[in-house]
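Self-study notes.
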Amino acid sequence: MIARRLAAAALLATVVLSGCAHAAPNDAARFDNQFGDDAVACLVHQRSQPDSAYEGGPRANTLRVLTMLHYYVANGDKPYCDGRPPGEVDRAWLGVYLRLGADPAHVVRYAKPVAHPAPTAPAGAKP
């Protein structure tokens, strides 16, 4: 009888805990923050697309998000080490930075300007 209860408890624990588990973030998508050094002379190009660990929300990893945000706040105005502009992957990371609501002033060198529509004159107004 005790063995049956233990087996039932173990099965219940397994079902409950497996429902709470999230897939681990992809280590290949880890953001390269140049070992967290604030005194970098230039930016490195990112090698992997960002994944859900960096996007905010329930699957985000707070430490990873803050690491990426800190990197751009401290270094986002610096040129890339190879002198090239940001590539597609770099732009994906910059997009995550901006979507999370971070200050675009830190990456103004690379942020695409937002197109504002031309103001329209009220009906019947003379130009």
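Second protein, same conventions, sequence then structure:
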Amino acid sequence: MNEILEIFKIPLLTAFFTIILGWFSIYVKNKLNRLDRKENEKLQKQREVFDKMLSLYSRKLSSNGVDNNWLQDFEIISKDLVIWANDKVLYEFSQYSKALIENNKDYEIYFAKTIEAFRKHIGYKNRFNKIKPQDFLNVFKAGWQKEL
């Protein structure tokens, strides 16, 4: 009997560890898929907030001021940014908001810095350091033919 156990000992241990390793690899794969799915959902939401923020700023440029609808949308986008933006984006947006409240003409450059930070956060790279905050303003203003 001991001889039979000795013969099957190594194959049984191999089979046992193969099954355990298989279960473990399935568990890890499922866990990584869930994390990846959550990260993709988060990135998608961040991009939606970024798009809303850009649309809101574009409306401000096109209307020579703000109306009640713009203020309501600004409140909503501010809340979304608190939830979805990283610290750098939130800081730059707070500087933009502060400049708006204080009627500081530098509000535009703060907004451009917010765009720059948001783009970096969602994965865009300024590989050659050629794009400066003023470039984002130029893109927006060119469409509305405003003085740069």
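Instructor comment on the second fold: Residues 2-63 form the longest helix (62 residues).
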